[in-house]
Specification:
The protein has about 375 residues and is mainly alpha-helical. It is built from 17 helices and two strands. The protein has helices at about 1-10, 20-25, 35-50, 60-95, 105-140, 140-150, 155-170, 170-185, 190-205, 215-225, 230-250, 260-270, 280-295, 300-310, 320-330, 340-350, 355-365, and strands spanning about 315, 315-320. A two-stranded antiparallel sheet has the order 1-2. Helix 7 (about 155-170) packs parallel to helix 9. The two termini are about 55 Å apart.
């Protein structure tokens, strides 16, 4: 496995054999020996990081293009067969009747058409190679997820790195696999929690937050995408992960901070902006509430909180999900000047009693 990783890193694997190598590597993820499984996980990361295809391996556009090229190849083959048949019939007719004029063959046009067919064939091979690699890695998602639950630091940490690489290259398993990475916040191994923090920080691209406000806003949008659909358990794991990363960063350990000040600032901008859709506003506030629980009340911005609270009631209907997220922020904060916001939320909820589960959840939070 280590030799295979070296070959991949040195780009010594031919592109047409890349998927075969990936298949052999993924097959060793089920090996009985822990060291072999660890090396296989590292090799999967290397296969993605040094792949000869593209920096984005989302299969959807490649499938569309491959289908179009295959359809063009079928149509071209049918056209060629029909043309050859007409020429053969003309030759037979010429043998019976000398007055029949044979169609002249334009050699230059034929060469141009053949070149075009060759280009399409090469492009099709490229997209098929991408899809074979992606499908091979995706087929191992279940095995990698089980390794993420491993009691060994090598297995869990390696699985976290693979899911991080899948998310970086936009593979489908990168989105679902990040939930498995969040679970690693409960690991008893500091090295595993460090790896999980690095994966989450890379998914949010928190380092880019330090280079400009527009990149911080992009990271905030990724943060919203990260926790969209997260349940209570996922949020608790993320909270534990942020808390561990903050504590270790304060002790000068090799931990990646997740809730960086600029990321939190950008999330507040998203939460308070008037042009943001309601779903994004809710998840931004949920992420902020999770950060607040993990790192303390310093992440609470009173004016922005008041601005976000104005969107709890829209068109005489109450957004219970937003009220619940804001209620968590108010509840977990120790700032006395946030009491008016809590009163505003209570008034809005009681004035628009829907009586469903979301309404009761919002009331509990407020």
């Amino acid at each position: 496995m280590r030799a295979c990783a070296k070959l991949v890193e040195n780009r010594a694997v031919p592109r047409d054999r890349y998927a075969d190598v990936a298949s052999a590597v993924c097959g060793r993820l089920k090996d009985k020996t822990a060291q072999v499984r660890k090396n296989a996980l590292d090799s999967v990361c290397a296969l993605l990081a040094h792949n000869p295809f593209a920096p984005v391996l989302d299969p959807a556009p490649h499938e569309l293009r491959a289908d179009a090229l295959q359809a063009a190849a079928v149509a071209d083959h049918a056209s060629t067969v029909l043309r050859d048949r007409r020429r053969a019939e003309a030759v037979l007719a010429k043998q019976e009747d000398d007055s029949v004029v044979l169609e002249e063959v334009d050699e230059a046009q034929e060469d141009a058409l053949q070149d075009e067919r060759d280009k399409r064939r090469v492009e099709l091979d490229y997209h098929v190679g991408v899809l074979r690699l992606v499908h091979t890695v995706e087929a191992s998602h279940g095995i990698i997820d089980r390794l993420a639950r491993s009691s060994t630091a090598a297995g869990a940490g390696g699985a976290a790195r693979v899911f991080g690489a899948c998310r970086a290259f936009e593979l489908p398993s990168g989105k679902t696999g990040l939930r498995a990475v969040l679970r690693l916040a409960c690991s008893s191994h500091d090295a595993v929690k460090a790896e999980a923090a690095r994966v989450v920080a890379a998914a949010l691209d928190v380092q880019a937050c330090e280079t400009g406000s527009h990149k911080a806003l992009e990271a905030a949008k990724r943060a919203c995408s990260l926790i969209r659909g997260c349940g209570a358990v996922d949020l608790q794991c993320l909270e534990a992960l942020i808390a561990a990363a903050e504590k270790a960063a304060g002790e000068k350990k090799d931990f990646e901070r997740v809730a960086t000040p600029k990321l939190v600032r950008a999330l507040w901008d998203v939460a308070a902006a008037s042009k943001v859709d309601s779903a994004t506003r809710v998840v931004a506030c949920r992420f902020l509430a999770t950060c607040c629980s993990a790192v303390g009340s310093k992440v609470v911005d009173g004016p922005s909180l008041n601005d976000a609270a104005q969107f709890v009631v829209v068109d005489e209907s109450v957004d219970c999900a937003l009220a619940e997220a804001l209620g968590r922020l108010v509840r977990d904060s120790k700032k006395k000047d946030l009491a008016p916001t809590c009163a505003l939320l209570r008034e809005a909820l009681f004035a628009h009693d829907s009586g469903d589960g979301h309404w009761y959840g919002a009331c509990d939070a407020v």
